[in-house]
Specification:
This protein is mainly α and 78 residues long. It has one domain: Helix Hairpins (Orthogonal Bundle), CATH 1.10.287. 60% of the residues lie in helices and 9% in strands. It is built from 2 helices and 2 strands. The protein has a two-stranded antiparallel sheet with strand order 1-2. The protein is rod-shaped. The two termini are 28 Å apart. The mean pLDDT is 87. Bidirectionally degrades single-stranded DNA into large acid-insoluble oligonucleotides, which are then degraded further into small acid-soluble oligonucleotides. Heterooligomer composed of large and small subunits. Its EC number is 3.1.11.6.
Length: 78
């Protein structure tokens, strides 16, 4: 399994969906299910963090006088 921190939002979402699918089948052993659940929880957090960071960047886009994006402002705390 790859390091979650290196995954893009899209990659993590695909893996999270696959993990949920495996859990839903009920075919995994108890230990496998626990490991899948733990990885799924970490993937969900990673996706939430990536999405929050993207939303903050969008909120900080500055507009020029003509209404066109002119740049971004740094997000405090990042």
């Amino acid at each position: 399994m790859s390091d979650i921190t290196t995954l893009s939002f899209e990659e993590a979402m695909r893996e999270l969906e696959a993990t949920v699918g495996k859990l839903e089948t009920g075919e995994a052993t108890l230990e496998e299910s626990i490991a899948l659940y733990e990885r799924g929880a970490a993937l969900r957090k990673h996706c939430e963090d990536r999405l929050r960071a993207a939303e903050e960047r969008v909120e900080k886009i500055t507009l020029a006088a003509n209404g066109q994006p002119s740049g971004v402002e740094p997000v405090e705390g990042l």
